[in-house]
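Quick board copy: two proteins, each given as sequence then tokens.
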Amino acid sequence: MKRYSFRLLGWLSALSLLVAACQKPEEVPVPQQLIPRDKMVSLLIEMHLLEARTDAASLPTDSARALFRQQQKNVYWRYEVSDSAFVQSYRYYATHEKDLDDIYATVVDSLSLREARQQEPGSPPPHR
């Protein structure tokens, strides 16, 4: 889980730096459907866990990608957001680096706490 989660975190960080370098915060308007920070944190946690589960499935790359995309749609549906609202919100938060840093600090803390709980003796097996 760590390897894949940190790889995704690296890609998302690189993406946010690229977007931030290309545009100033005042150039990116607030999206009409801006996902609130707490909901964005929950969505990103779900996405990282989904990606870790997909990676752990040891599927061929194309099958893993298809599975991830299908499950990603389910996550959007559960949180009642569209993929475009997610992308626009992520882009908005990425151009406001402090916001994205705060969001990801919470995401990383939450994932670390989950991992610590799973490693405790007598803890239930991870949810699949």
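And the next:
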Amino acid sequence: MKNRVITISREFGSGGRTIGKQVAEELGIPCYDRELIQQVAEKSGFTENYIQDAGEYAPGGFLASAFSHRSAGPNNADYLWKIQYNIITELAEKGPCVIVGRCADYILRDKADCLKVFIHADMAFRADRIVKVYGEREESPEQRLRDKDKRRAAYHRFYTNMKWGHAQNYDITLNSGTLGIEKCVEIIRGLY
């Protein structure tokens, strides 16, 4: 089998994680999502919760710049980015796989046999889905979606200097709200 990698970037609540796992299962290849967080935690010595949070906030925001000691050397986020970058590169070289999130689309941008996918959906579909999957919260589902997507976009732009979700940065973008989860899986599998 040709060494093929699929990266899946996604809006929060669009079902990208589910799609990635199902594609990998149907193709009989590994899927790396939360497993990446575990590997970064093991190599860095930080907790998985810390890694998860660090991957959602771009360094350099107002508070980060006000309290940063960047001039003294790289910060924790930069250190974690380097570890994450190396792990994703190693996984892609090891064999076929699906990698969900973590800027893998950018990290593997020069890999010829990498299919870069972005999954999106309208606000109503995503809001309904996150309530079903994650349950009710004090904050409205729409606000949770806006906050999470804003953090993902800022993190992606900080480390890649590319606009997250912009169609030009991916091989294909799929609307899971219109197509449905199963059809997205079928399309990606067909492109593999």
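Board note added afterward: The CA atoms of residues 131 and 141 lie 7 Å apart.
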